[in-house]
Design a protein that fits this description.
With about 260 residues, the protein is α/β, with parallel strands linked by helices. About 30% of the residues lie in helices and about 20% in strands. The protein is built from nine helices and eleven strands. A six-stranded mixed β-sheet has the order 7-8-9-5-10-11, sandwiched between helices. Strands 4-1-6 form a three-stranded antiparallel β-sheet, with no helix packed on it. Helix 3 crosses helix 4 and helix 4 runs parallel beside helix 5. The longest helix is centred in the C-terminal third of the chain and has 18 residues. The N terminus is likely disordered.
Length: about 260
């Protein structure tokens, strides 16, 4: 049971990020599994306020890239450099969120406040305040006392993003956050994600199947496709004009911006 007056275990503050310092950079990063590299080397740098769209066909290697950068999968080559004190938060695909996890919405969002050395359940008043503020930002304040397993897909995804917001992360990774959502929920979730760099100065890296929308909302884009041996980072506004984009998505989308 949560205890709003409990005192958590003290932790050592992380070093502060330096102004202008990249939050995370990868240099000729090779990703894959079972020792097999599936994409060309990837080089990119993520700064505060950046919004990256990671695009590519199904099975292109997008989730593998994300998991490697997060440290959930080992890199097969190259370097990943994270700024000292960097706080990262990850919103996985909705299918990876256990729908029968026995926890309240507030309890689930509070988990985003977990820090090394803290005991789950020993939350400070500031933790509860941050969790409730995050729920309000995600338009999910009225769900606080509901069970996570009783929520709809769109509600559950907003709560997952609220947990990420509550973490006070510098860098948010989101893997297909609108997959399987209805149009109304999809729009709400995308608007919330787009606001993170603007309101918090954080960076967002979002894997998306909505190619046109992703390029319109993002500043930068990473195009991945293992079948065409493509790993291309570019400004989002320029991505459609690249030969690799036209090769993968065809001339219609490249020239007109019509969704595939």
């Amino acid at each position: 049971m949560s205890n709003e007056s409990a005192t958590p275990t003290p932790t050592v503050p992380a070093p502060a990020l330096r102004p202008g310092q990249p939050l995370l950079s990868v240099d000729r990063l090779s990703v894959g599994y079972d020792g097999k590299v599936i994409l060309p080397p990837i080089t990119m740098s993520i700064g505060a306020g950046d919004h990256w769209a990671v695009i590519g066909p199904n099975g292109a290697g997008k989730s593998t890239f994300l998991r490697t950068v997060l440290g959930l999968e080992p890199p097969l080559g190259g370097r990943i450099v994270r700024a000292p004190g960097l706080r990262m938060s990850y919103v996985p695909q909705q299918s990876n969120l256990d729908p029968i996890f026995p926890v309240s919405v507030l309890g689930f969002v509070l988990m985003g406040r977990q820090r090394p050395g803290n005991v789950i359940g020993r939350w400070r008043p500031a933790d509860f305040a941050a969790a409730r503020t995050a729920l309000a930002q995600a338009e999910a304040a009225g769900l606080e006392h509901r069970q996570l397993r009783d929520l709809s897909g769109g509600q559950r995804q907003r709560v997952a993003i609220a947990r990420a917001i509550a973490s006070d992360a510098d860098l948010f990774f989101l893997d297909e956050p609108t997959a399987a959502l209805d149009i109304a929920s999809e729009r709400q979730v995308l608007q919330l994600i787009t606001s993170l760099p603007q309101q918090r100065g954080a960076a967002v890296v979002m894997v998306t199947h909505l190619v046109e929308d992703g390029l319109e909302r993002a500043k930068q884009a990473l195009l991945l496709d293992r079948d065409h041996d493509v790993a291309l980072a570019a400004a989002a506004a320029d991505m459609r004009r690249t030969p690799a984009f036209e090769q993968i998505y065809g001339r219609v989308l490249a020239r007109t911006g019509v969704r595939p």
